[in-house]
Design a protein that fits this description.
This protein has a domain of 106 residues: 3-Layer(aba) Sandwich (Aminopeptidase). Helices cover 25% and strands 37% of the residues.
């Protein structure tokens, strides 16, 4: 058996070293300046105790990234998918699906029972992905991203993890 010259990308926690490649992916993935995370915002997310930031990486490159926020409310823990973006050269490899599934899995570990997100109404690929994962459209947000750039607010309700289903996982954040 020979070594694969193109190993499968891995999903891992983002570090400060990933900020610039993530910023490049943001600039290549979104149309409006209001949609694009700046390096400073990305760094803040990576440091935040209420955020989970992951990258899809292959040796020597970042192919995509995703970020979610989680917070405790009176009704329990909720999550929000803040961003998922894949470098244009890496699209079609199901990396968005892999990142979304891992982000959702980690939100479940934080006891989230509902996850929200916003997605442009013209982003058909992302809408298909989110629906395949169990999200439903809750409402349309007119002019959400900019004038005449609308969004769907989507949500997914999840059953809480029972004690017998729970696992102990430690996530280490690089600083």
């Amino acid at each position: 058996m020979t070594d694969d010259p193109h190993p499968a990308p891995s999903i891992r926690a983002a570090t400060r070293a990933d900020i610039d490649p993530i910023a490049v992916i943001e600039a290549l993935s979104f149309y409006s300046i209001d949609e694009i995370f700046t390096p400073k915002q990305i760094a803040r997310l990576i440091r935040s105790p209420n955020a989970i930031v992951l990258v899809a990486a292959s040796p020597g490159s970042i192919l995509g990234w995703g970020a979610v926020l989680h917070k405790r409310t009176r009704r329990g823990v909720t999550g929000r998918i803040y961003s998922i973006a894949i470098h244009p050269d890496a699209r079609g490899q199901r990396l968005g699906d892999a990142l979304a599934r891992e982000l959702i899995r980690q939100l479940r570990e934080h006891a989230a029972t509902r996850i929200y997100l916003e997605v442009r109404t013209d982003n058909e690929a992302a809408i298909r992905l989110y629906k395949s994962l169990g999200f439903t459209v809750a409402r349309t947000l007119s002019d959400y991203y900019a004038q005449d750039i609308h969004a769907y607010s989507m949500r997914m309700d999840m059953l809480p993890i029972s004690d017998e289903d729970s696992v102990s996982v430690s996530v280490t954040r690089a600083t």
